Amino acid sequence: PFCLYLTVALGLNIPPVIFAGQALANNGGCNVALNWLAINAFLCVVNMAAAMYISGKVVHDPNDDDDDDDDAKKNNNVEAPYIEATVGSKAKELEQSRKTKFGLGSSIFENRVKSMSRFGRVREVLCYDPIVAVYIVIGIFYIIWQSMGFGRMNEAANCGGGEEDLISRALMCGFLFISLGATAFGCSVCCLH
Description:
Blueprint: H1 3-26, H2 31-59, H3 62-74, H4 89-101, H5 108-128, H6 130-159, H7 163-190
Helix pairs in contact: 1-2, 1-7, 2-5, 2-6, 2-7, 6-7
């Protein structure tokens, strides 16, 4: 469900890192432009890492890990589960319990509860995760940094060396990430089920 968000985040944050590498490889030009591109590249790497972290935390169900550990303890770390052969009405009861346990034949309400748990994880990650809280502060700084880039682009044009073109491309990717990244995240949250 979060592949759209990850695609937008990675696709719009990798190019500014490459632009910073190109500017550093040229070794000439404006230090103001080089510093802006280097810090922007660092912020883009943080954006990519945060996108992977957030999507991983939302999509991964922590209850799956607990169930696997409990099953391993019950089965004494045996790979295949023990299944008792049954005949008659007991077999029908066992089949019904398996359907309920594995979500086969579940009601609309049960599916709704499962989807609410994913929305609950989104709320938990966005509101209570300390790593995401730090990322939100860094994200606010990223928006301010993008705005400062226009001034740095004008200073780079006065210095010569061609870094203003790299800064303008990085700014284009940055502002597209701010707008499309938020939209893609919202769409990814809406597609959870």
